[in-house]
Write a structure and sequence with these properties.
Blueprint (H helix, E strand, L loop, with lengths): L1 H11 L22 H12 L8 E5 L7 E5 L11 E6 L11 E7 L7 E5 L6 H15 L2 E5 L13 H17 L8 E6 L3 H10 L5 E5 L5 H5 L15 H4 L6 E7 L7 H10 L7 E3 L13 H13 L7
Parallel strand pairs: 5-6, 5-7, 7-8, 8-9, 9-10
Antiparallel strand pairs: 1-2, 3-4, 4-6
Helix pairs in contact: 1-3, 4-5
């Protein structure tokens, strides 16, 4: 099953878009930019939703109110036995919200532990859903995946403030609809997804754990590493300042050959974490293939056993 999982993840993380993550950093240098302008610029720099989307949301012929993800491309496997919904996001501090996002609930039998997964910047839910299904099976955990505003079939425009509203809407869905408690939930952020993940972790104190996969210290530190100082309001996804406020146990995984977000970001975040767990430094792996590391699944399983106990996934 491990190799099956890794094959799924390969299709979910296309290499062709890897280097588009953070470019044109000179656009962020003017010091008089307002927060709304930063949000607009960050949308162009940090977000690359697949176009066209990799999926459609459809209703079953005999049950039109029950939705499913219909892949648009033959190399993406259709996933059954998952619940697909539309969630309305609320206005959030700093702007954002008032969009409708697509979420997929991938259950693992009747277990309680749940992972809220925020994906990278150049994929959508249709590409990631097969990976979520295999991750759920391998880790024996429920997985909630979602598309950011402006991704896939979610409405709105990709922006930093919208991602914060998006993840908060998903978190409230887990609490209010699925009946989960904060201590049942692990939040997982990959690459750009580390931004909303750290924001939620800093504001919600009861979360069980956090996983940061190839995370960035902050947008400015990737976009313009030669700059030594900038106004705090000018930065995007300031994970390096948020992580010391995160009380949940934090696992950081980073490849030492990462060509998009340098390995130094993962190491700095590990040092900054308030409650760090022994990290996974994947020797020889880059930004787009960390999950191919043979230690990837065992490390996640070890982390979950530490959080929930050795029998956490047994019915």
């Amino acid at each position: 099953m491990q190799q099956k999982l890794l094959r799924c993840s390969k299709s979910a993380l296309p290499r062709s878009t890897a280097r588009r993550s953070f470019r044109c950093h000179k656009a962020l240098r003017p010091m008089g930019l307002l927060r709304g302008v930063i949000d607009s610029v960050s949308a162009r720099l940090a977000f690359f939703p697949p176009s066209p989307p990799s999926y459609e949301v459809k209703g079953h012929d005999d049950r039109p109110d029950e939705l499913y993800i219909s892949p648009m491309f033959p190399d993406i496997r259709k996933v059954v036995n998952c619940e697909v919904l539309h969630i309305k996001t609320k206005p959030h501090r700093g702007g954002g919200g008032n969009t409708t996002i697509v979420v997929a609930w991938v259950p693992y039998h009747s277990v309680v532990p749940t992972m809220l997964f925020s994906h990278g910047n150049a994929v959508d839910l249709g590409q990631m859903l097969p990976f979520y299904r295999e991750l759920s099976k391998e880790l024996r955990i429920n997985v909630l995946g979602y598309d950011y505003s402006g991704y896939g079939c979610s409405t709105g425009t990709p922006s930093v403030s919208n991602t914060i509203a998006d993840i908060n809407a998903c978190y409230q869905f887990l609490l209010q609809v699925k009946g989960k408690r904060p201590e049942d939930i692990v939040v997982y952020g990959q690459s750009v997804g580390s931004g909303p993940t750290c924001d939620l972790g800093a504001s919600e104190k009861g979360l069980k754990g956090i996983v940061l996969h190839s995370p960035l210290m902050s947008g400015m530190r990737v976009l313009s590493p030669s700059m030594n100082r900038w106004p705090g309001w000018m930065d995007i996804f300031p994970n390096i300042t948020l992580l010391p406020k995160v009380e949940a146990k934090t696992l950081i995984m980073h490849g030492d050959k990462d060509e998009v977000v340098p390995f130094e970001h993962g190491k700095a975040l590990y040092k900054a974490a308030k409650n760090p767990y022994p990290p996974l430094w994947a020797s020889g792996f880059g930004h787009q293939n960390l999950e191919f590391c043979t230690l990837y699944l065992p490390k996640l399983q070890e982390f979950l056993r530490d959080l929930f106990g050795k029998d956490y996934g047994k019915m």
